[in-house]
Structure formats: C-alpha cells, structure tokens
Write a structure and sequence with these properties.
By secondary structure, this protein is an alpha/beta fold. Helices cover 39% and strands 27% of the residues. β2 and β3 form a beta hairpin.
Length: 293
C-alpha cells in the first residue's frame, strides 16, 4: 500500500492531479478537507510503480506539496521527525544575524546563500563566516535570540509530533548558544549544533571567531539522525527529515521520508517531497497523515 498526500496552500487540489491518481492507483480510498495548512487530499491504495507516480505528480504539482509514501509510513505515523533549524524551524539564519553585529552582515549573507545552494563546502564556509565574529561579546546572543523567528506552523508541528507519540529534534549548522534555548522552549527531544569558542578579555567573555568540536555539516546531520533513531530503537524507515539547503541532503536521503521545506533548488529536486509554501505544519500531514476527527 502507498499513501499519497497533496496539500494546496490556497486553492483546491487541481483536478488533473486527482485524475492522475485515479489512473495509477488500484481501488484508491480518498479523504480530504480544508485545514489551516491548506486544502488537503489523502489517498490510500495500491500502485504498481509508486515512484513513477511521484515523478508524474510532482512534475505537474506547481505549488502543491506532494508526497508518495510507501510502507511502513503509508499505514503508520512516523516515529521520528528531525529538522534543520535555520530557514526551516526558523525563518532566519543565525550566522547572518550575528554577523550584522560584527559589521559583516552583507558579506556573510552572501557566503551563507552560496553554501546553502551547494556551491561552497559547508565546513570551510562556516569557519570563514565565524571568523568575522571574533571579539564580539557573548551578550550578543541576548540580542539575537529574540530575532530568531519560528516558521509559521512550527509549534503546531511540534504539538502534532507529540500527539502522535513521535520524537522530534533538530540538528543545526547554527550554534548551541542559540539552538539549546530554542530546543528547551519547544520541549524538543534532541538537538545538536556547532559550539562557538569563547575566551575572557578584560573580564568580558567574547567570541574567538572559531568553532570547537565536530562541525555539524551534511555528514554529521545524517549521523545525528541515525544516532538518535538508534538510541530510541526507531527504524530509519519510520523517520522523517526536513531541511532547506545542501547541508541537509544526506539527512534527507537517510530518512524514510526526506522533505525539502521552502528549499534551494538542489534540495527540492533531491528530496522525496517538497513543501514550497511557508507552513511548517504541512510536514505533519506528510509524516502522520490526516488528523483524526
């Protein structure tokens, strides 16, 4: 059995998509409705070539999010959701916000954009960007934290995961100084992020412009997903990963369902499903199916 979920943010799901489903699936069972997230159609049934169906649907979907999911996620809710933070869980990029206080905002934002498009090695680009922060007082985190705005629907997604009995966590190319308080506030089950080195100068704690420990790059994000799943005896086939940039590609590939969220083209193309509109709680519909009445 497969489950096909389609979410249209502003208008009903186009008839052409429904006709494609009717042709490709055997005895499709359809449910749907208008939710806060958008117009939703979910179909359960059999299909001889689900991946060809997925490609066909995505090719004509436009702004409609489409996910074609096979077992075990087709019939059971996901047990784990792992999210990127910057431009996924939040609408902001932490390094760009920090760089504004160092007077390097424009330069760092350009490097961030290229890294997320996959044009630069993430580890090298991170070190180059972090170097611009040398000498900043750690009080800068008190200024930046309130500017890390949650994506629309982020809290709904967390609540949906908890209601489904699933674990939910984040692995971030950002920084523990900012990610840890956010994870605590949202009561997430797991977080990992880069650690910024600090030192004391004249009695004040400042950033050295260096990262210490393991850099959270695309390989590490996949390792975080695997490690957290193993710690809770969760099969990766029952895991969902969500991200927007090239740094998330390995994590998306490792999960049973990899979802690109308002993503760069390279990520959207590689992911199993792509949500192109700013409602993070659309992930819940793809991960857990339609909510029960």
């Amino acid at each position: 059995m497969i489950r096909v979920t389609m979410i249209s943010p502003s208008s009903p799901v186009p008839r052409a998509l429904l006709m494609s489903l009717d042709k490709a699936m055997t005895q499709p069972r359809m449910t749907g409705g208008r939710l806060e997230t958008g117009h939703v159609v979910q179909v359960l049934g059999e299909c001889s070539d689900p991946w060809a169906l997925r490609d066909e649907l995505r090719g004509q979907a436009g702004d409609v999010a489409v996910a074609v999911v096979d077992e075990p996620l087709a019939s059971t809710p996901a047990r784990l959701v792992m999210l990127d933070v910057d431009s996924t869980l939040t609408t902001t990029e932490a390094i760009d916000l920090l760089a504004e206080y160092a007077g390097a905002g424009e330069r760092v934002a350009e490097i961030t954009e290229r890294a997320m498009r996959g044009e630069l090695d993430f580890g090298e680009s991170l070190r180059e960007r972090v170097a611009t922060l040398a000498g900043l007082s750690t009080t800068v985190f008190d200024e930046v934290a309130p500017r890390m705005t949650l994506s629309p629907g982020a809290e709904n997604l967390v609540a949906a995961a908890k209601a489904a009995g699933a674990k939910i966590g984040v692995t971030s190319g950002g920084f523990t100084h900012l990610v840890a308080p956010l994870a605590e506030r949202l009561e997430l089950d797991f977080y990992n992020a880069n650690v910024l080195e600090t030192e004391f100068q004249g009695g004040a704690e400042v950033l050295t412009g260096r990262v210490i420990g393991t850099v959270v790059d695309r390989q590490q994000k996949a390792k975080d997903l695997r490690r957290f799943a193993a710690e809770h005896s969760i099969d990766l086939a029952q895991a969902v990963a969500v991200g927007d940039g090239a740094n998330d590609l390995d994590m998306l590939a490792a999960a049973g369902l990899g979802i690109a969220y308002c993503a760069k083209p390279v990520t959207a193309q590689a992911a199993d499903a792509s949500i192109g509109f700013p409602r993070l709680d659309a992930v819940a519909l793809l991960a857990f199916g339609m909510p029960r009445a």
